[in-house]
Amino acid sequence: MADDLGYGDLGSYGQSMIQTPHIDRLAREGIRFTQAYAGGPACTPSRSVLMTGQHNGHTAARDNIPHYHTYLQKEDTTVAEVLQDAGYRTGGVGKWSLGDAGTVGRATNQGFDMWLGYLNQDHAHYYYTDYLDYNERRLELSGNAVLREHYSHDILTNKALQFIRKSKDDPFFLYAAFTLPHFSSESEDEHGLTVPSTVPYTDKDWPESARKYAAMVHMLDRDVGRIVELVDELGLGKKTLIIFTSDNGGHRTIWKEFDTNGPLRGYKRNLTEGGIRVPFIARWTGTVPAGRVSKEVISFQDMMPTFAELAGVASPPQY
Known about the structure:
This protein is α/β, with parallel strands linked by helices. It contains eight helices and ten strands. It has helices at 21-28, 43-52, 79-85, 144-147, 152-167, 208-233, 273-276, 303-311, and strands spanning 31-37, 89-95, 114-118, 131-134, 137-140, 172-177, 242-245, 277-283, 292-294, 298-299. A hairpin with a 2-residue loop joins strand 4 (131-134) and strand 5. Helix 5 packs parallel to helix 6. It is globular, with a radius of gyration of 18 Å. It starts with 20 loop residues before the first helix and ends in an 8-residue tail after the last helix.
């Protein structure tokens, strides 16, 4: 799951200036939905809907603000808990947003055997952070905010690949909630778009902020490709459902020439289509027909019953 990636940011959804060959290939090899909806128009509520299966009128997280130490409570049931109980090894990387370290809502208390990333959503605004939350402790990256030796997305991707390798002989669920291409703190980058390099768009006659955003999308696409390639390399393609999506629509500050939300009106934080309709691609080799485009209306709250059914277990009673 990408963070703030717009409906129109992918080649398979009409983007022509930013190249996304790996995600576009995923679309060709599976099904591409044209009417898929996030759980909400901003990060936290959307993730809460995805994890709990409750729509935005029922889930505890209704907005990013005010920020709570935790949204999920002991009585809440997540997709990860359902799959964990069904015998799946569960791992997550990236942005959680549903419970800080030490609270009942933290990822490792909500069904994840492993979590590496940002439990607090504001912490996720720093790509060169001094630490990441790793299970019940911190992975210290001392001095990283100054030295800039470790770009967090690279660490998250490597951990995702490691989790797949370690889990290849058992059923597993990986929630890769990448932070790209979400804006960063302006204290970290003057444009609020922290990226190690603008390659392969460095020579483009675009504003610097546009080159940075395009490079972020490029990195996201590259590493989605690495995950898919590893699944296939391990011979898991025919028994692994891979889904790619975004948590809400693109941000209004993105260079207008990119047309981040394509034909849709509005942006992140709006309840018009540009805020909540998202790219949604599913590939399951041999099970999902390749090259299919669906106009079926689906949303994040559909994931809980879908995953439960695929795992051969019942959804929680309240769903």
